[in-house]
Design brief:
Blueprint lengths: L14 H9 L5 E4 L5 E4 L4 H20 L4 E4 L5 E2 L5 E2 L3 E5 H4 L4 H5 L8 E5 L6 H13 L4 E6 L4 E5 L6 E4 L4 E3 L8 E3 L5
Parallel strand pairs: 7-8
Antiparallel strand pairs: 1-2, 3-6, 4-5, 6-7, 8-9, 9-10, 11-12
Length: 192
Amino acid sequence: MRSTPPKSYPEGLTDDEFFVVCESHPGWRFERDVTGKVTVMSPVGANSSNKNFTLTVLFGNWLHEHPELGYAFDSSAGFTLPDGSIRSPDLSWIKKERWEVLTPEERNKFAPVCPDFVVELRSASDVLKTLQTKMTEWINNGCQLGWLIDPLEQKVFIYQPGKPPEEFSGFHHKLSGGALLPEFELDLLKLK
């Protein structure tokens, strides 16, 4: 039986203490923001999980063709960002040379690296404004490309350093990974 985590945690947990909290509650996702506030994220509904699985498979297919470029991670991976927050996107990717400089110990905890590419997929329990703030934090911490995909309203927000977010309505678009993720295109209709 899965243990239910407390609704709140004291601020100021060290990285190691936070890691122990997360390890003590398998099946739950946790994040810690820059102020030290811990957020408990319950499992998502089956429909959102299916969309996340589809996204992961499509990205995995691309990665299978380009394994020399980097490493991908699912929604259970947490990363310690330069601002001290620990975040967990729905999908992420790190350039090979950046991942391989990390020690085995760093890789086995919340790796101290900001992914180069992240995707946040809005579920029914997510507040859009909260996800938009989170996407800005990813970019501010060094992420090169971020996609916020909102199947509920069929909108996409693209985040890149030095640019305001781009917003697209409708899922008739294909998203391009550009130079960062050569030849990767995501047909949004597959997430409808």
